[in-house]
Amino acid sequence: MQQEKYNLFQSQNPEIGYFDVIFDFNGKLLYANKYVLVTSSETLNAWLSDRWTKDENPIKIETYTFDIFYQFCSFLYSGNCKLTEKNIFQLVDTAEFFGIQLLKDFCEEFLIEIFNENNIGKIYEIAERYLLSNLLKEIERYVKQNYKALIMEEKIVNLPKSLVMMICRYHGGEFSAFEAVYKWTENYVKIKKEDLEFEEKCKYKFSEFLPVLFVPEFDANKVFAFLVEKPFLVSVSQLPKIIPNYNGKRIEKLFETVYQMAEYQMKKKLNFSSDEITEEVIRNELKEIIKNIKFSEMSLNFVLEFIVDQDFPFPSNILELLTECKRNDHQEEKYFKAVNIFIYTKKLISKKF
């Protein structure tokens, strides 16, 4: 019986089909039986009630194309329709609007079969928008197994933000994920024309990924090198938090990086040149970080070459740094010489002022 009704619908012959409702798609007519439609959907029932169809004139449809509505009606008649990569998104939307859960499930099964790394972005957006839970689970499983392919720059830049977030949770410490997220951020900012400056917009958007992006397995040296090139991307105060396991050479690189970032960020913030950045400005920017830096993990050579030589940001505790830093027996002479030079320099400065 159902097959006979469907065959009559397929014929689209008003002479034999017992049709009592006509839809007009810009002059192209689609015939159907009202009973089949209204018993499938409360929305259709309200839509096709007498108050909307008081006469027998065709109902003009502008929201959907003839082909989409034909496949939709085909499903109502037979429980089946022809799905393609071109019509699937519109049919999911149609099923959602008219409340046809069986059609949504049918579409979801099709989407699970066809998604891959090339169309995953668009399909993920559909799954998220229409709450296709089984599809979302399959996508997450796929991401977990194929994140290396997805974090390639040319693929990630056009993915939706929430999917990039998911990829970040499974990147496993691959530094390419860090670079890829920046490229996504850069591309997003270029597309979204907002009032903030480019660097500020990148920093704001990139910060949203920090909770899921950084893991202890990251190569800190690569991160530091990247941030030195883009010192605007992460605030100075965030850096020790996102790379928590630092010691030895890593802590020296961290200190050097945050110093350069602080200098750059203060220059941008206060519109100063590098030469105009004052002792007080740098000290204030770094004071919270300095409290948590383990200077005892630094080598004497680093403290002498990087910190003592640039003593203006840290005049109050250079002696303490020299005392705490790592040194061997052969460096004792260098240590005492540095202390004497520093004390002598401070005396000269005191006399001058």
Dominant shape: elongated
- Mind describing the biggest β-sheet? 3 strands, mixed
Which blocks of ≥5 consecutive residues have pLDDT under 50? 344-353
Order of helices and strands: HEEHHEHHHHHHHHHHHHHHHHH
Strand content: under 5%
- Reading side by side through the largest sheet, how are the strands ordered? 2-1-3
Number of helices: 20
Mean pLDDT: 78
User: What's the Cα radius of gyration?
Assistant: 33 Å
User: Which bin fits the share of residues in helices?
Assistant: 55-70%
Beta-strand segment tally: 3
Give the structural class: mainly alpha
Instruction: Please give the alpha-carbon distance between the first and last residues.
Output: 104 Å
Describe the overall structure.
The chain has a 3-stranded mixed sheet with strand order 2-1-3. With 353 residues, the chain is mainly alpha-helical. Helices cover 61% and strands 3% of the residues.
Q: Short summary of the structure?
A:
It comes from Panagrolaimus davidi. This protein has 20 helices and three strands.
Keywords:
elongated, 353 residues, 20 helices, 3 strands, 3-stranded mixed sheet
Q: Mind sketching the topology for me?
A:
Layout: H1 2-11, E1 21-25, E2 28-32, H2 34-38, H3 42-47, E3 59-60, H4 66-78, H5 88-98, H6 101-114, H7 120-129, H8 133-150, H9 153-156, H10 161-168, H11 175-191, H12 198-207, H13 210-213, H14 220-229, H15 239-242, H16 249-270, H17 279-292, H18 300-307, H19 318-324, H20 332-352
Parallel strand pairs: 1-3
Antiparallel strand pairs: 1-2
Helix pairs in contact: 4-5, 5-6, 6-8, 7-8, 11-12, 14-16, 16-17, 19-20
Organism: Panagrolaimus davidi
Pfam family, one: BTB
Protein name: BTB domain-containing protein
